[in-house]
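mind reviewing this fold:
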Amino acid sequence: MTAKAPLAYGEIVRTAIGALRARRLRSFLTASSMAAAVAAVSLVATVAATGADFVLAQIRGVGPNLVYAYYEAGGNVSASQADYINIADVDAVRRRLGSLASAVAGVTSSWDSIFVDGQPMQIRVLGSSEAYRFVRNVKVHEGRFLEATDLESRAKVCLVTPQLAEKLYGPAAGVVGQTLKAHGLEFQVIGVFSESVETFGQSEVAESSVLVPSTVLQYFQDVERVDPLYVAVSSQDRVDEAAVLVREVLESRHRPGSLYRVDTLSGLLAAAERILLALNLAMVLVASITLVVSGVFIMNTMLISVSERTGEIGIRKAAGATRRDIRLQFLAEALALAVLGGTCGLALGVAVPWAASQAWPALPVRVPPGWAAFAWLSAAVAGSFFGLLPATRASNLDPVEALRHE
């Protein structure tokens, strides 16, 4: 007796597709569950990646190559003997670092009271140099920034924040050329500036701030105090080296026991990247549970299908179909449901972020291609894995018992 030849793969696929088309509603609902699962994973990955990009962009906007230093009271030095960082220290750091630093700037500050619509208002007066724009990535919205000649000539010029400009001159008024009186001096407004990223009050720039040449502000300070000192390092790979040199310069120029805090943003950036990666993984893995749930749904649907088609299986076996043919047919049905649903879900997971980016161009939406591919492949694997039990059960049916059931 000759062995039964297995069916060709093309015939198995056509038979599987025909079986799914015969039960359109059930097939549609089952594929939809997988589509929802894949879309959920893709969208969660997109939200996680977009959020991570935003947080990291905020840190990088401040400056990943940034070294900042400030005085910390402590050690053997009393508050009255504090060795604050001064302008001479800024010049010494600039000379010591040389080409290692692309820009060095110190910031001095004070407070003053001005009147707006007859009401007193506190403003923060900052003093710095033209290098401040580069160390802090400052944005100039109108006019110009400080120049070296402004410091050399001790020009009575200033820049104001957008919030202060609106309070002083109104939202529609031209700001450049206006005057502002602080510390008894009349300054000419030469520009409007702001931080490149929102620091929510965690930097020296307050909502109502005025930036003037440090050579002018130093005359209104009882004690010369640079707080903080900023260094923009020319290479991110040498940030730690620059930080060590800054500390050495400060400690060598002041009395033993004076404490100086020297920090970088590279460590913060690396820590943020690790934390965000862990959070992203956790979010996507939690969302991936929906893939398992959808796989179980496919398995239950296929088990019901096997029970309903017992007679059909018996007839096919009696007509010459092998166990392998039956197993592959039901596996093909489960895989087709998973792949079809996964493809639709992937399309949805990409279309929604794309539509969001078109509606809000400022929103930095990014669909991680790796996670999108993972979601689609997981759908195919889930369909194959959870379709294995129904396929095996169908292939093991005894043809005589199956025909008797019919």
